[in-house]
Amino acid sequence: MRAPRSSRRRPTPRRPERSERSRTSCARSARSDRTRSARRSPSSESVTRDDGVGRLLALGLAAGDAGTLWAHFDAAERAGKTGHGHKRIAWLASQEFDPRATPRRLERREGFERWDAAGGLGYLALAAAVDSTLTDPPEGSRLVVIERCFPSGALGYWARLLAEGGLVALVTATSPRRLPHPEGGPPLTGTNPLAIAVPASGGGPLVADVSMGAVTHGDVLAGLALPEELVPFGGPHAHKAFALAAGLEMLVSALAGPAHGALVLVARPGHDPVPDFRSLAAGLRLPGG
Fold first, then answer.
1. Distance, CA of 214 to CA of 5 (rounded, Å)
2. How far, rounded to the nearest angstrom, does the alpha carbon of residue 191 sit from its chain's CA centroid?
3. Short-list 94, 134, 109, 130, CA closest to 262
4. Radius of gyration, CA atoms only, the chain
5. Could you tell me which of 199, 212, 201, 193 has the C-alpha nearest to residue 288?
6. Burial of 146 (0-12, 13-18, 19+ CB in 10 A)
7. Domain annotation for the chain: domains and CATH numbers
8. CA 43 to chain centre
9. What is the number of H-type helices and E-type strands within the chain?
10. 129: pLDDT confidence band, cut at 50, 70 and 90?
11. DSSP assignment, residue 5?
12. Measuring CA to CA, which residue among 204, 106, 191, 109 is closest to residue 155?
């Protein structure tokens, strides 16, 4: 006779659990990912150009620099990126910078340039480097390193300008440490965005601009997110965003030094892939509008 089976259930093997801090981080990332697109709405506190430029001039900035900053902030506001928009004007008033500083090009050779923001705003250093690149584009490719470059703003704005000038562009930059490891702990990296822009015949460039955070610091400043939501994006897969943030942190730091910096890589395109890609994705929303 067959022996009677035990009525006791075999214990189900338990899967290893993440740490409580990791689960909390993932939950915050997932919650932020779900609400991210809903937060990208134009601000109800729009500022007119005259008012915005006037407030920038009151900070001691030259007229040309105030106009450059206004163009950046207003483009972000109109695109729904209010964390990089008009609210940044008031934020600048709380920052320490030399309003009369002039970005300097320290080094130039074939395929490489090094700039220094010289104590001024990173926006203006990036603007100077981008303008210089468009005025004298490389024959092939060029890497531009900008030291002491902070804040750098919405990087897709700079990448788009370069692509509208006919260049393939990649822009990245570091910022204060705000993202913790997915398992928790102190902030280890900046949100370290990455922007890529590719020109296209018969239309505007394709522009992809992604922060490695579930939200940006600008979202927090604009009241669109909570500080504790500053974690790598991706929920249970946040280790991927953290890996990119760490890699970009080390890349920029290795080339621009310990202070916050920015990298701009440009090249003349040899092909025109965007129109075919847009046809393939007909009816779907693609980066860059």
1. 52
2. 7
3. 130
4. 22
5. 199
6. buried
7. 45-100 (no CATH), 101-289 (3.30.1370.60)
8. 20
9. 9, 9
10. very high
11. P
12. 191
